[in-house]
Amino acid sequence: MRLRTQGIALLLLLTPALGLAQAYRWVDEKGKVHYTQTPPPKGDYGVVAPPPPSPGRSPNVEELSDYAGSLGGSKPADPQQAATDKARKQAEREARCANARQRSAYMKDDGRYYVPDAKGDRSYLSSKQIDQHRADARAAIDQNCN
Questions:
Q1: Residues of the chain falling short of pLDDT 70
Q2: Which of 3, 32, 64, 70 has the largest CB neighbor count within 10 A?
Q3: What residues contact 30, with CB distance under 8 A and at least 6 apart?
Q4: C-alpha span between 144 and 96 (Å, rounded)
């Protein structure tokens, strides 16, 4: 039992390292597309861009622009890749929309709102700050929701 637990722990520790490997895309003589961790022995190949930020958290604007820049700004040659990119962008936009709607709904009443300060204590917002948060949420809804 202990050996099994150690094996699982070792596997979990090595899993992130597998994600850091370089990936290559190439097409063989028959026109079949291959993805490998080593470039082909002969012929042309391309380096696959890093994956987008994980969906478990909201990426910030800098991360998204860095990822977009790593793609080279050109349209993918593969129609399936284009469809995948479009679906990913739509999912990110829907997540931003849901987040903005949730913030807007939370800020509807005239209660007291606070944000944690650097020490972790509550710093209550003024009515002007609350109005600004509400305006930001409305702008995000206008920008991300259909």
A1: 1-21, 50-77
A2: 64
A3: none
A4: 6
